[in-house]
Amino acid sequence: MPNKHYPKTYNHPMISRKNSAPGFSLVELLVSLTIVAVLVAILVPTVSSVMERGRTMNCQSNLRQIGSAALIWSAENNGWVAPTLIRPGGDANALQWNKDLLIGYLGIPDDGTPEVKTQIKKKISCPEWYDPQTTFWDWGYAINDTPGYEGTRTTKRQKQTNRIVYDDDGTKKGNFGPWTMQEITHPTSRLFFFDANEWQLNPNRILEEGMVDVQRHHNGFINGVFFDGHVEAITLEEAYRAVYDPGNRSLPTPDV
Q1: Which CA distances in Å does 209 have to 206, 223, 254?
Q2: Backbone φ, ψ for residue 201 (5° rounding)
Q3: 44, 221 in Cβ contact below 8 A?
């Protein structure tokens, strides 16, 4: 039989053989994309939840520090409760807000620089706080302005707000405090500072307008620090009781 001479083949190193490195099939590609989509669907809510939990913890840390600052201020000022504001008389611009009293106790010396102002803003407001009115007090927590209220049993003295206001002649003016820490009843259930879009909140305003200024930033809950210094996440109804009548946990709650 005659020899058959077949032409020799030469595989160039830069030329790959057909099917030597097969790619993904359409089915494999679709399965991979489905797996990626499922993983993203699982991870995104988890990451969002972790970030929200971080903001909640940051807010609670702020309130804990503010509460501690208020207690230190009280200890250094004859046991007075840190007032909502002080008006020494004369120029109305001389008003001193509670945040101005407490900033020095938050460990940030206010030198007036923009960087320090930003640090202070982070300390005195919830990370979730946003005030579209850009209020002049620039402060994301409210103080309980009437810390002696006892619901329908409230006396004339207990209705006094915790403000120190003087007339131009230096005499004390109006139906105002101040209050002392010894006068505060139910400190474990009476709110001191809490999430709000206002600088103060008291039962008179609540009864007239409801809890419209209280902000439920944290999945429907409000962070607050109580007069004993503990911090807690509470519902709107619990916040109402903790301001209006903290000694009566079973208080029927109106439409707040």
Answers
A1: 5, 21, 12
A2: -150, 135
A3: no
Of 164, 159, 204, the C-alpha closest to 81 is 164
Question: For residue 111, what are its two tokens?
Answer: 């030198």
54 three-state secondary structure: helix
Beta-carbon-side half-sphere exposure of residue 26 (alpha carbons within 13 Å): 0
Q: CA-CA distance, 72 to 66, in Å (whole number)? A: 10
pLDDT single digits (tens) 233-244: 999 889 888 998
Residue type, 199: W
Q: What is the rounded distance in angstroms from the CA atom of residue 91 to the CA atom of residue 85? A: 14
C-alpha dihedral sign at 31, 37, 43, 46: negative
Residues β-bridged to residue 86: 96, 164
**Cα 118 to Cα 137: distance, rounded to the nearest angstrom:** 14
| Pair 68, 123: CB distance under 8 Å | no
Residue at 223: amino acid letter = N
pTM beyond 0.85, yes or no: no
- Each residue's pLDDT tens digit, 119-176: 888 888 888 876 555 444 567 888 998 999 998 888 888 888 888 777 776 666 655 5
For residue 228, which of 38, 25, 90, 81 has the smallest C-alpha distance? 81
